[in-house]
Amino acid sequence: xxxxxxxxxxxxxxxxxxxxxxxxxxxxxxxxxxxxxxxxxxxxxxxxxxxxxxxxxxxxxxxxxxxxxxxxxxxxxxxxxxxxxxxxxxxxxxxxxxxxxxxxxxxxxxxxxxxxxxxxxxxxxxxxxxxxxxxxxxxxxxxxxxxxxxxxxxxxxxxxxxxxxxxxxxxxxxxxxxxxxxxxxxxxxxxxxxxxxxxxxxxxxxxxxxxxxxxxxxxxxxxxxxxxxxxxxxxxxxxxxxxxxxxxxxxxxxxxxxxxxxxxxxxxxxxxxxxxxxxxxxxxxxxxxxxxxxxxxxxxxxxxxxxxxxxxxxxxxxxxxxxxxxxxxxxxxxxxxxxxxxxxxxxxxxxxxxxxxxxxxxxxxxxxxxxxxxxxxxxxxxxxxxxxx
Length: 389
Fold this sequence. Notes:
Radius of gyration: 21 Å
CATH class of the largest domain: Alpha Beta
Structural class: alpha/beta
Number of strands: 13
CATH architecture of the largest domain: 3-Layer(aba) Sandwich
Strand content: 15-25%
C-alpha cells in the first residue's frame, strides 16, 4: 500500500508535528510505503524538515506550494502535484492543512488516486476572518469534499462545523486525537535550575502559554489582564513559549507596561524541548480564537498541569470545565482573571485538576494510538478497492 501525505509547510506547529509523527509511524507498518510532500518552510516559526531529511526520498518539496493565495503558483502547484501522483501512483493521498488540503485532493482526483483522505486540524473558515474569505474557503472546501473519500478530525467540533456547512456526510468523518510522545511530559519536572536561568524564583507562580506570537493566539488578552494579575499575585510570571512575527510587538508592549520582569520570552523551542518548559509551569493558558484541538492542552495535562482555555473549536474536548481546568468564553477577561488567581491561590486544586487531566491524556493521546487508528482507517477503503498490503 503506497501512501503519500501532503502538507502546505513544515513549520513547528501542532498540525505539522502530527503529520510528521504519522508519516514516521506508518514507516514501521508492514506493507506500507509512505512519503511526504510539502511546500517550502519559511518564517520565524522554525522547521521540522530536518526530522525527515535523515530518511532518503521520504520528503519532497514543491516550491510552488505556498500558504498565501497566489493564482499562478496555485495553478502550477496543482499541475505539479498531479504529475507527481501520476508518476508515483499512490493508493492513498492523505492531505493536511488548508492550501495543501484543497490542491492536494483536487490533484489526486485528477490523477485517478483511488483513496483520498483529508485531516481537518483546524477550521479554514469561521468568525476569525472576514465574510469574503469565509465565502472563498467554504466554497473551496465544498468543492474539494467531492474528491474526498474520508475525513479525519482531531476534535468533534470540526466535524460538527463542516457538516453544518454541508461539507460531506456523517459517515465520512472519524475523530482521531492528535497524539504525541507522552513519556517526556509524564516525567517532566519542576527544574529549579531552569527556573533560575529564566529569572523565575522557586516560589513564583508560573502561567505558561505555548503558541506562535501572532494574531488570533490571544496574547493581547493576556497583556490586558496582566497588570491586575500582578497586583493581586505579585509573584506571578508569564512564560511565553514560541516565536513569531509579533514577538517584537509583545516585547515592546511588556516594556511599555513596565512588566519586563514578569514576562519571559523563550523564543523558538524545538518540540523535544517543550516538556522541560511545561515542567516549570504551574498552569497553562490557551487563548487562541482558532484551533482544532490545541496540542498545548493535552501536553500540559500530561505533565499534570491544570489548563485554562477559551471555549473555541475543540478545546472543550480536553479542557473539561471544573475537571481538568477551566473553560472561558472568549473575551471574558474578568472570569479569566478570576480563574488564574484561583489557581494561584490553591495548590490542592491545581493538583486535582492536573491529575484528572493526566489520566485523560494517558488514555487517549499516545502517538502509537494515533498511528494505529489512522492505519486501521486506511484498511477498510483499501480492502473495498482490492488494494493489498
